[in-house]
Write a structure and sequence with these properties.
The complex is a heterodimer of chains A (about 325) and B (about 425). Chain A is globular. Chain A is about 70% helix and about 0% strand. The two termini of chain A are about 40 Å apart. Chain A has helices at about 10-15, 25-60, 80-90, 95-125, 135-145, 150-160, 165-175, 190-215, 220-225, 230-245, 245-260, 265-270, 280-290, 295-325. Chain A has a domain at about 90-295: MetI-like (MetI-like fold, Orthogonal Bundle), CATH 1.10.3720. The longest helix of chain B has 28 residues, at about 1-30. Chain B has helices spanning about 1-30, 50-70, 80-90, 105-110, 120-125, 135, 165-170, 180-190, 205-215, 235-245, 265-270, 285-290, 330-340, 340-350, 370-380, 390-410, 415-430, and strands at about 40-45, 70-75, 100, 150-155, 155-160, 195, 275-280, 295-300, 310-315, 315-320, 355, 380-385. Chain B has about 425 residues and is an alpha/beta fold. Chain B contains 17 helices and twelve strands. Chain B has a six-stranded mixed β-sheet, with helices on both faces. Chain B folds into two domains: about 35-155 and about 315-385, D-Maltodextrin-Binding Protein, domain 2, CATH 3.40.190; about 155-315 and about 385-430, 3-Layer(aba) Sandwich (D-Maltodextrin-Binding Protein, domain 2), CATH 3.40.190.10. In chain B, β1 (about 40-45), α2 (about 50-70) and β2 (about 70-75) form a beta-alpha-beta unit. Classes of the chains: A mainly alpha (about 325), B alpha/beta (about 425).
């Protein structure tokens, strides 16, 4: 099947006559096999690490896989769509909890995405043109990204404790802004506390990506804009943003997927069960499969989450690609 | 041809790698005479740190090796990981030979079939069932089945109270009823300290407390057929009793609702920020936290007037043998060794827990007032957690519901009986999955 493929370079080579004609098919053959061979480890790894576990997860979602069967999965009874029915019965507590968790996650993701991107964009524009101490500022901005998640998030949770935390100490004791010490780790505020921590964790990555994107924008475009009388805002709008289009397309998608699936931060922040107000979907699934030992329903939820994320990604790529080809 | 050479080289190296993998496995499981056997032991975290546990266990394990020639490779697993690790071991079949389990997990783990049942013959091999405390032996699996593990360290809840604070407030006796406890708590709630501290963000502490309160009311979370009955009025009353510590009695600092790491309520007690705390035997930790031993008093957790005389769950750590072990006789030797009287005395003395075997109580270390209080609680006033396969789910679901209710009460939302009932019903529905 490989020899049937005419190589695009073959004609040129024959015309120049720099190599004997008989040698051409042989070299072609080698060159076309090698990429596949080099790809092989990736394909195998991809299968082992992503595809196979995913398929196993899908398979598990059709099994009544509780603690009675985890020792021997093959004996777990098939339950058809029962797991899906169970997690999707929105008039019952389990379905309501899943729906609540889903909406919480959607809100969380949208807010985190907007804040992280805005913060990163502002910082990247600020540090786009050289000034004294720019390197230092950039380094400081990247610190949250460089710190180990566990250490930094635990520190946040100490800072946000009600009685001994630094945040309340500053707000209540030093500034006197509030009379009553608010809770940050439980109750309504926990949602916002988690957003602050997540934005703090995430925005340096967006900053890094945007900074890299901006460094490739030719200076002439800014000069031309300046000659046309554009101020900072206008040149951001008409020069920076259009040039960052493809960077933003990928960046927003990646940030969306990361935030929607975020597990480490809430798990470290709240411990193994999150407050209702900040019950993100990945924590919810973890609770339903690992903590309550019902891997069937946990898998069903994961499959639904996967389908949702696939759908969002597909729609997003369709829309953004159409727009860019229109333009 | 070049290509062929490359592919065959790749193929050879893959085969070689997999062969090497197999070879490694074979060496690892090393069969041979008993002298060569190395047992893998997963110990739970009983001491002040994982390193401390290793230090405490080492002399015992060395003694075992000297006696039998069997090496023991110990790994201390933190509580936050232990259940997940056991589940992973169960699912993969690759696990330790001998392991510690929280005794409340016994029935759930028994249902997986991953642990060797201690039937009469197996029990006889390790010296018979009669050696153990009857109460602790009750928490080793479902009724009517052979125990899935044997008790190793026994524990019970007690009401720790600060004698100095009690004396200062003119209270001479530890509270005999729940109403007494509330009254004492009100007197002891001052700008400097609170009446009672609780670990309100901890799922397991919450469920243990609520379970005991429910038993005191004569309630039950599972009926005789093993069906869940979470939202009965008695269970609602039990949860209300707990939440009211913050909500209406106001003898617990609302901040306690976010205490989740399993040490904060005890630290508050040790540092004089609270006058009472309901905790498992904690003499060692209190000493570590710098509390004066003369100030520490222990009494059974009181029941409401006219309630059932229940003061604790049967708490403790069990020792189990992983059924997939290739060294069952040696594993059972190790179980016998760990539950032998001298060992029980040494380990429980260090950890501040209670021996799981009767004979060990002859040691003077276990004839103190505090130990006698705990032993009498364990003998007469402790009930095992429900021995149903869904026990772990029950702990998680109800414990989380209580955590959320405490959080509501702490942030000023009134928690009504109806709200409690709805939360419990929701927890029960989720058990149905």
């Amino acid at each position: 099947m490989i020899t049937a493929n005419p190589a695009p370079g073959a004609g040129t080579e024959a015309r120049t006559g720099s190599s004997p004609v008989r040698a051409v098919p042989r070299r072609r053959k080698k060159r076309q096999w090698l990429p596949y061979l080099l790809l092989l480890p990736v394909v195998v790894a991809e299968l082992l690490i992503h595809i196979v576990p995913m398929l196993i997860g899908v398979g598990m979602s059709f099994l009544g896989l509780t603690q009675f069967f985890i020792r021997n999965w093959t004996k777990a009874p098939g339950v058809g769509l029962d797991n899906y029915r169970f997690v999707l019965q929105f008039d019952e507590a389990s379905g309501k909890a899943l729906l609540h968790s889903f909406w919480t996650t959607v809100q969380f993701t949208v807010i985190v995405l907007a804040l992280s991107w805005a913060l990163a964009m502002a910082a990247a524009v600020w540090t786009q043109h050289a000034f004294r101490g720019r390197g230092l500022v950039r380094t400081i901005f990247l610190i949250p990204y460089a710190l180990p998640v566990f250490a930094s998030v635990i520190t946040w949770s100490f800072m946000l404790q009600r009685d001994n935390g630094m945040v309340n100490h500053v707000l209540v004791d030093q500034l006197g802004l509030l009379d009553e010490r608010p809770f940050w780790l439980i109750g309504d505020h926990s949602f916002w506390a988690l957003i602050v921590v997540e934005v703090w964790r995430l925005w340096p990555f967006a900053f890094l990506a945007l900074t890299a994107g901006m460094s490739s924008i030719p200076a002439e475009q800014y000069e031309a804009a300046a000659i046309d009388g554009a101020g900072v805002l206008r040149s951001v709008r008409w020069v920076t943003l259009p040039n960052l289009r493809s960077v933003n397309q990928v960046l927003l998608l990646v940030l969306f997927l990361w935030t929607f699936n975020e597990f480490t931060v809430p798990y470290t922040f709240f411990g193994r069960s999150a407050p209702e107000q900040a019950d993100l979907i990945s924590m919810h699934i973890y609770q339903n499969s690992f903590v309550t030992w019902n891997f069937g329903t946990g898998s069903a939820m994961s499959v639904l989450l996967l389908l949702f994320l696939l759908a969002v990604t597909a729609v997003y790529l369709l829309l953004t690609n159409r727009k860019s080809s229109d333009a | 041809m070049g290509l062929k050479r490359i592919t065959s080289a790749v193929a050879v190296s893959i085969v070689a790698a997999s062969l090497a993998g197999c070879g490694g496995d074979d060496e690892g499981s090393g069969s041979g005479s008993a002298e060569d056997v190395t047992l893998t032991y997963w110990a739970s975290n009983q001491g002040t740190s994982l390193a401390n546990d290793e230090e405490v266990l080492k002399p015992q394990l060395d003694a075992f090796t000297a006696q039998t020639g069997i090496e023991v490779d110990v790994e201390v697993v933190p509580w936050s990981d232990l259940l997940n690790r056991i589940l992973a071991a169960t699912a993969s079949g690759e696990g330790p030979d001998v392991l510690n389990i929280g005794n409340t997990w016994s029935a759930s783990l028994q249902a997986t079939g991953a642990l060797t049942p201690f039937d009469d013959a197996t029990m006889a091999e390790i010296g018979g069932a009669d050696r153990f405390l009857a109460g602790s032996l009750a928490a080793t699996g479902a009724e009517g089945h052979p125990p899935t593990a044997v008790p190793l360290y026994s524990l019970a809840y007690g009401l720790y109270y600060n004698k100095a604070m009690f004396a200062e407030a003119g209270i001479t006796e530890p509270p005999g009823t729940w109403a007494d406890l509330i009254a004492a708590g009100r007197k002891l709630t001052t700008p400097e300290h609170w009446g009672v501290s609780i670990e309100g963000g901890s799922v397991s502490e919450n469920i243990h407390n609520v379970f005991v309160f429910s038993e005191q009311q004569g309630g039950s979370f599972f009926d005789d057929a093993g069906e869940p009955t979470f939202d009965t009025p008695k269970n609602v009353a039990a949860v209300k009793q707990y939440v009211d510590l913050i909500q209406s009695d106001k003898i617990t600092n609302p901040s306690n609702a976010e205490y989740a790491n399993g040490t904060e309520a005890l630290a508050d007690f040790a540092n004089g920020k609270s006058a009472m705390v309901m905790w498992q035997a904690a003499a060692g930790s209190l000493d570590e936290l710098g509390m004066d031993a003369a100030d520490i008093g222990v009494a059974p957790i009181p029941a409401p007037a006219g309630g059932e005389d229940v003061a604790s769950i049967v708490a403790g750590i069990n020792l189990a043998v992983f059924d997939n072990t290739e060294h069952k006789p040696q594993a059972l030797d190790f179980v016998e060794f760990m539950t032998s009287t001298p060992n029980q005395i040494a380990l429980n003395k260090t950890y501040g827990s209670l021996p799981a075997v009767q004979e060990a109580y002859s040691d003077p270390a276990f004839q103190t007032e505090a130990v006698e209080t705990f032993k009498s609680i364990l003998d007469d006033r402790a009930v095992p957690m429900p021995a149903v396969p869904e026990e772990s789910q029950f702990e998680t679901l109800v414990g989380t519901a209580v955590k959320n209710l405490l959080a509501q009460a702490a942030s000023g939302t009134t928690v009504t009986e109806q709200a409690i009932s709805e939360q419990l019903a929701a927890a029960q529905q989720q058990l149905g999955g």
